[in-house]
Amino acid sequence: MENKKAIKLIDKILNDLDNSGINSESLIEDLKELRTYALEEQIPLVVKVLRYTYEHIERNDSFLIPIPDDEPVEESADGDAVSVSNNDTAVNPVESLKYMISLTKKLSNRTNIADLKEYRDALSAS
What's the pLDDT at 85? Predict the structure, then answer.
């Protein structure tokens, strides 16, 4: 995001998560405020991810979405690319939420956009 107030709010959210974990009430208010900045900047992906995130936290009183995998790709015997996924990773709600929020800081990075899309899909399916 470009807005300096939005960047400050992102830093505040990350700091609050470090200090007190997922405090649903204040966290949801901060996410709603951050969403207004994304609306102003017309970033539909971030707007949707933030709404899905605070709705998910309201329902679950936690963030139960894991950090997207960096799925290694291996080549099969016939030359096709095969994705290798390791799904036995435990969900760390605070770390995953911190990662997701930090992605919104630098939207010029294609990997950040791809991970935000994965969060969007996981949140909409939850």
Answer: 44
Q: Which of 113, 106, 17, 115 is nearest to 57 (CA)?
A: 17
CB 103 within 8 A of CB 112: yes
pLDDT at residue 101 tops 70: yes
Say yes or no to pLDDT of 123 above 60: yes
Could you tell me if 11 and 34 are in contact, meaning their C-beta atoms sit under 8 angstroms apart? no
What is the reported pLDDT for 86? Answer: 45
Q: Which of 123, 119, 101 is nearest to 11 (CA)?
A: 101
Strands in the chain per DSSP E: 73-75, 81-83
Distances 26 to 5, 13, 60, 74, 78 between C-alpha atoms, Å: 17, 9, 15, 43, 53
The proportion of the chain whose per-residue pLDDT surpasses 70, expressed as a percent, equals 83
Cβ atoms 10, 3 nearer than 8 A = no
- Rounded Cα gap, residues 37 and 6, in angstroms: 6
Asked if pLDDT for residue 25 goes beyond 70, the answer is yes
